[in-house]
Amino acid sequence: MTSFGRPLTRNEDPRLLRGEALFVDDVELPGLLHVAFFRSPHAHARLLSIDVEAAKARPGVVAVVTAADLGEYWQPGPLLVPPPPVPGMVFHQRCQVPLVRDTARHVGEPVVMVLAESRYIAEDAVGDILVEWETLPAVGDLEAALQPDAPLVHDDLDSNIAARVHQARGDYAAAARAAHLVLKRRFIYDRGASIPMETRGVVASWDPRADRLTVWDTTQAPVVIRNGLAAMLGLSERQVRVVAPNIGGGFGPKMMMFYPEEVLIPWAAMRLGRPVKWIEDRLEHFFATTHERSQIHDAEIALDAEGKILGVRDVFLHDTGAYDPYGLTVPLNSQCTLLGCYVVPAYDSLFTAVFTNRTLVTPYRGAGRQHGVFVMERLLDMAARALGLDRAEIRRRNFIAPDAFPFDQDVIYQDFSRLSYDSGNYEPILDKALHAIGYDDFLARVQPAARAEGRALGIGLVCYVEGTGIGPYEGARVQVQGSGKVSLVTGIGSQGQGHATAFAQVVAEQLGVDIRDVEVVTGDTDQFQWGVGTFASRGAVVAGSAAHEAAKVVRQKVLKTAAAHFECAEEDLVLADGKVHVAGVPDHAITLGKLAGLANPMRGAVTPGTEPGLEATSYFGPASGATASGVHAMLVEIDRATLKPTILDYVVVHDCGTVINPLILAGQIHGGVAQGIGNAFFEKLEWDSEGQLLNASLADYLIPTALDVPRMRLDHTVTPSPLNPLGVKGAGEAGAIPVGALFAQAIEDALDLPAQGIEIREMPLGPSRLWEITQGG
Amino acid sequence: MKITIRVNGVGYTRDVEPRLLLSDFLRHEIGLTGTHVGCEHGVCGACTILWDGEPARSCLAFAVQAEGHEISTVEGLAPGPGKLNPLQQAFQDAHGLQCGYCTPGMLMTLTAFLAENPHPDEAQIREALSGNLCRCTGYQHIVDAVLRVAAA
Ligand code: FES
Ligand code: FES
User: The complex's ipTM?
Assistant: First the structure.
């Protein structure tokens, strides 16, 4: 039976379940040194002097490194993602540095690196370091940062503007003039953190005999790190091996180039001739691993009397933190994803990215898409109310029609191509969701009855699209081993997405083997030389397609080799259960392993041009991304005394094209929703006016527990993508994207806030903020 | 100081500093890296081990305190090399793990929980899990895994 599309359990699980899987902090090497960092205690301060003598003198300390000790190696990091080719765009590149040399620009920026025989000693020595600072006023508030007298994060610029991008099409002003209704609102989305359960870490080892560097790194993009490290360290790529073994959750922030620690640990290993390990502790993680999400939107929507959108205008500020190496991916996602499932004839969007004295902002699951969805979905809710329309109906009236695909949105997306939706069919998704959640019955019967009893029950219903599976490319190599097992190697890293299973299903489909006999290797640059990384829900789409193409070629080689062996036509062969036989003669089968041997003769001559083995490498690069879509619906009850929400039902209907493994897909959606719930109701980074983070621990920054995340009910529709051979679209971020908008709508509904003239226009909430809002604050 | 700690039925004698955390002892002194560390402040539960059969956070104990106690870790769960016990198998069957980083702590918490309450309902399972954070799964498939074991 074919394995593709079935809910198969995962190949990677047994080792993880037995505690045998390798994570970065599990790497132990003889002579290993341990690193701890002295980090800036100030959000903005000039560095006057550093005294490391006491630290150096501490027994067990091997080296203490400041910016001055790095010499020429001290360089600002490269720009990982250049800005988009939008005419008139402004972009000021200011990238992070390995160690603070002159000015610290956010709390937690590394200043001194201590290397010692144990982490305990290294941390003791950090306490010995004396640094003199001249503190400078810090900027955190986005609007204050743009005032003419604001302190400058980068004083060589004349403002805190990091970038400005204007994208427009159609004539919004004319649309607004012609409109029956124009609504204007301000929306605020505050900062959160990704909090993978495994923090970051780097281990590096220089082998002088092999003349090679090996780096174990919790990165989502090992090949990119390998190439960058080689360039910085003056090595050729073949001299550097980067391994991203099992990674304990990525969610975006483990895809950065470069974190200071990634630059420093390999350098130290080469300098000292000893292997070096640094593992981030949870406190460091809150300051030093990138954040996401502060934006302020001033948005307006113009509609006709029937509720058809005529145009949207949005002006927003985006907090990029102290540096902007990740370019404009996040605000571009917000700008583009706002358009959602809808026809928006006129769109005018201007964003300003702002430097602040805070940790850098880079993509975290959803990567700005949720901001766009929040703004658009909230505007539609408000418009529906003003026009006396049902929430579902106003969405239905504005959906892109199923025959309008491919649908050109005519804005530049994060992959620099013009955003075009490849395929979609939105009404069936909405109908399924309405039916599953019992929408009509809830509004007609359940809610009025609950209200009569004094209970605050509400329903939410939110639509979204997710641009996924963008280029440029990934590759995969498929090889039949002598054992008859099949190996699949690709350059991306895995952080729990089940690639070792999903890719095995793709390969097994072509080669007629059990998925347990497909050995998938990801995240080792010695195994595969080329690749970009795991981000933007692209692993299954791009690397999966490459695996499919490579497996197809290997299938041809298998059949060709078997045809020669059986002296028959390829068409007469059957490839199944790891063997090939002539149709009708299953007893005379030859195994894939034997065929691999035949394809690799040790003596004699071959036809010129013959390649040995049953192996193929393929690359896949989609012209543009595949657009997935979906609807989330939920029933919520709010405790009127505590304002704590209890989710009574949660439905996700999702269309991500062809599904490789429904079990893994369900897990991706569950996890995304859980993060969305955290983002909507629990998680908010709290700062004081000096730029100090006040809740930098898991005891203070609360991520959802098993008591906070409800049971979810999932359903799917399937509109295959025409842009890849599998028809798949990415699904990694879909769960997280609409949850904020959904909470806002459902809570408003439960507490009947609009009747009191109150709207929810911000994220995240939390009981105390919700209480303020209900009091009109 | 010299201590001997029994882990999964085997005695390990090491010379350690009094301040060495039990989690670091397990992971870095005796190489049992299955126990993970997610916060080192007692919140995430990734480092959960069994201390005389009771779940405990190995990041909140010093190794020296464990002398004379019976410690169990994830490496001791499977009935043999290459095998899984019923709870581990249920985790695989229900897709109860993604990155797998929280999983050892989950398994240890649940091992103690199921020993006391072999047939819990969903609400009891969620309560039992509420001290172990997972950032990947949204918990639903973990709950499903435990329900499978509870039904067996
Ligand atoms: S590492 Fe011990 S509870 Fe988090
Ligand atoms: S599976 Fe990744 S943290 Fe639980």
Answer: 0.98
